[in-house]
């Protein structure tokens, strides 16, 4: 639903309108078999939540938070899965799909012959990636509430956080796509993504790592995202979370401007 | 505004390679203007600059009276572009390719649907409207690309080698549609390395070679200026061309020796053939034809257009 409403919401003239027309193109594709891709993106975090959060969690029992409170392992893992699924949704759209459109489908070449500019393609694709992320996130949050892993109010607060995470990772994915040369290099991206998924305080608190590794982990984007969603889900929310938001906003802005500039260089030679 | 395209000393350089080397062009409203030249002459680079997707390296370029460096989106809103290689959206149907493209121009959905229906009719693809793009033939894809270029009712349509790679029948269908557009008053700018295409479609053209314009004018004027009225093509046994060429000396205004034949440029073809026979040369094949742009190109560059 969100994907259908969204383009209209930002349907003002100029850049927004043109970027929305790019998003709209993706919606037109949706009518074919694209929904299968959407479904798989949704299933992944749900499977992790059940297998690790609930399954492994049963063996682990309760976990002590930084402030000494005890929470169930599934409660601990769930907000991290939310952040991770926002990341996955955004990245799969802006790396694999975006790269294919740019390099092999020659799709953007056709679009650039119209008034639409490279940065507007990037924005439109990003809006699409985000719309997709919102869909995953909303569904996942509903499951969290149903399983009593968080409260409905907290779930509502987590939705915009998930959107921001989607935007930030989408912009990052686009930048990567403009730097990458071949499909083979995507294996590296997948590895990197998986490493982020495993180590960003998702399954264990970063305090479990040695000090040096902790520092590395804490500056990665998924860690900042998990920190944000977990604080929103379990509390307390403080200045650190404001920093998380700032981090993600900067990542988005820098990523988008680099991607737009590199697209211009590549497609408008 | 008298010129839709106005270029002076236009240059396009890629690193140390100069693709377009200082060309002057003026294209007027309603005319069909052609760039004729072999591959690598700089035609496509010029077209991309005109289409405002490639910034000029140097010189003056005004499109529809505007500056492509500054007003790219505003200019592109009024252009239709049919690229050399089809870049249709393979994830969409034939009809959606038109309606989605219309949205990039900000055309309302209802108008887009209506225009798509009209254009599909125009390029004779109505029956394939709900088909995907992939199974279409080369000619159909090209027609769809042309329809897509018309979706914003452009003031000027840019066609980069519109019939390259099509079989003769498909080519004629494309020509016929383009001719109809021209009759409707649409300004056409096209590149080609087919002389017959240039002769059929263009009111005026420039001959390009090595990034430069080597001649300009109407097809007829170019032929009159750079060639003779008729051409005699003589074929001799392989390897003996040069020897025969010497024996043909003095016949006609000019003589070109190609790998597979000798061309005699003459005012009267039949008379020249009679003279060839008087000299008791016995060619394996004789053809008398009217001069074409191919001859103009050969004269100007010493090379044939299509190898």
Automatic annotation (TrEMBL), chain A:
PROSITE patterns: ABC_TM2
GO cellular component, one term: ATP-binding cassette (ABC) transporter complex
Residue spans crossing the bilayer: 34-56, 76-99, 126-147, 153-176, 188-209, 238-259
Keyword Aminoacyl-tRNA synthetase: no
Membrane topology designation: Multi-pass membrane protein
Compartmental location: Cell membrane; Membrane
Biological processes annotated in GO: response to antibiotic
Cell membrane among keywords: yes
Positions of the ABC transmembrane type-2 domain: 36-266
Assigned keywords, A-Z: Antibiotic resistance, Cell membrane, Membrane, Transmembrane, Transmembrane helix, Transport
Molecular function GO labels: ABC-type transporter activity
PANTHER family referenced in this protein's UniProt entry, alphabetically: NODULATION PROTEIN J
Similarity remark: Belongs to the ABC-2 integral membrane protein family.
UniProt-recorded name of the protein: Transport permease protein
Automatic annotation (TrEMBL), chain B:
Cellular compartment(s): Cell membrane
Primary location recorded for the protein, binned into one broad class: membrane
GO cellular component: plasma membrane
PROSITE patterns linked: ABC_TRANSPORTER_1, ABC_TRANSPORTER_2
Stored SUPFAM superfamilies: P-loop containing nucleoside triphosphate hydrolases
Record keywords: Antibiotic resistance, ATP-binding, Cell membrane, Membrane, Nucleotide-binding, Translocase, Transport
Pfam families on file: ABC_tran (PF00005)
GO BP terms: response to antibiotic
Keyword Ubl conjugation included in the entry's annotation: no
Keyword Transmembrane: no
Segments forming domain ABC transporter: 5-235
Membrane topology: Peripheral membrane protein
Signal sequence residues: none
GO molecular function: ATP binding; ATP hydrolysis activity
Family: Belongs to the ABC transporter superfamily.
Name of the protein in question: ABC transporter
Source organism of the structure: Paractinoplanes ferrugineus
């Amino acid at each position: 639903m969100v994907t259908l409403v969204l383009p209209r919401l930002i349907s003002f003239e100029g850049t927004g309108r043109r970027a929305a027309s790019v998003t709209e193109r993706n919606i037109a594709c949706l009518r074919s078999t694209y929904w299968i891709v959407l479904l798989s993106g949704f299933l992944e975090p749900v499977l992790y939540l059940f297998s690790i959060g609930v399954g492994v969690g049963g063996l682990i029992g309760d976990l002590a938070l930084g402030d000494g409170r005890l929470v169930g392992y599934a409660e601990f893992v769930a907000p991290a899965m939310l952040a991770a699924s926002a990341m996955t949704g955004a990245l799969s759209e802006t790396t694999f799909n975006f790269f294919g459109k740019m390099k092999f489908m020659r799709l953007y070449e056709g679009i650039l012959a119209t008034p639409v500019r490279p940065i507007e393609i990037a924005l439109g694709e990003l809006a699409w990636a985000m719309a997709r992320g919102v869909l995953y996130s909303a569904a996942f949050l509903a499951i969290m509430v149903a399983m009593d892993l968080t409260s409905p109010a907290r779930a509502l607060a987590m939705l915009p956080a998930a959107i921001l995470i989607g935007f930030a990772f989408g912009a990052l994915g686009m930048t990567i796509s403009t730097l990458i040369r071949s499909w083979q290099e995507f294996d590296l991206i997948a590895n990197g993504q998986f490493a982020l998924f495993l180590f960003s305080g998702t399954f264990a608190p970063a305090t479990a790592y040695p000090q040096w590794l902790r520092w590395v982990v804490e500056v990665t984007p998924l860690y900042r995202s998990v920190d944000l969603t977990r604080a929103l889900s379990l509390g307390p929310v403080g200045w650190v979370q404001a920093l998380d938001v700032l981090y993600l906003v900067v990542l988005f802005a820098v990523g988008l401007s680099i991607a737009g500039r590199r697209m211009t260089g590549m497609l408008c030679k | 505004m008298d010129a839709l395209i106005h270029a002076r000393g236009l240059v396009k350089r890629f690193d140390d390679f100069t693709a377009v080397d200082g060309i002057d062009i003026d294209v007027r409203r309603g005319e069909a203007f052609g760039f004729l030249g072999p591959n690598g002459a700089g035609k496509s680079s010029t077209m991309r600059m005109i289409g405002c997707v490639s910034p000029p390296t140097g010189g003056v370029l005004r499109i529809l009276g505007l500056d492509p460096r500054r007003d790219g989106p505003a200019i592109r809103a009024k252009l239709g572009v049919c690229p050399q290689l089809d870049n249709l959206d393979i994830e969409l149907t034939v009809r959606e390719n038109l309606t989605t493209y219309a949205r990039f121009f900000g055309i309302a959905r209802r108008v887009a649907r209506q225009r798509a229906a009209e254009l599909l009719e125009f390029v004779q693809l109505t029956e394939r409207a709900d088909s995907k793009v992939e199974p279409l033939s080369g000619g159909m894809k090209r027609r769809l690309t042309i329809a897509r270029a018309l979706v914003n009712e452009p003031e000027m349509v840019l066609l980069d080698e519109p019939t390259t790679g099509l079989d003769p029948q498909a080519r004629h269908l494309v020509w016929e549609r383009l001719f109809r557009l021209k009759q409707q008053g649409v300004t056409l700018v096209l590149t080609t390395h087919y002389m017959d295409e240039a002769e059929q479609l263009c009111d005026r053209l420039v001959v390009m070679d090595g990034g430069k314009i080597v001649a300009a004018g109407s097809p007829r004027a170019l032929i009159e200026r750079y060639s003779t009225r008729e051409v005699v093509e003589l074929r001799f046994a392989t390897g003996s061309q040069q020897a025969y060429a010497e024996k043909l000396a003095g016949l006609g205004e000019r003589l070109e020796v190609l790998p597979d034949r000798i061309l005699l440029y003459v005012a009267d073809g039949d008379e020249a053939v009679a003279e060839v026979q008087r000299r008791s040369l016995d060619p394996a094949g004789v053809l008398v034809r009217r001069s074409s742009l191919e001859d103009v190109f050969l004269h100007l560059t010493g090379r044939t257009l299509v190898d």
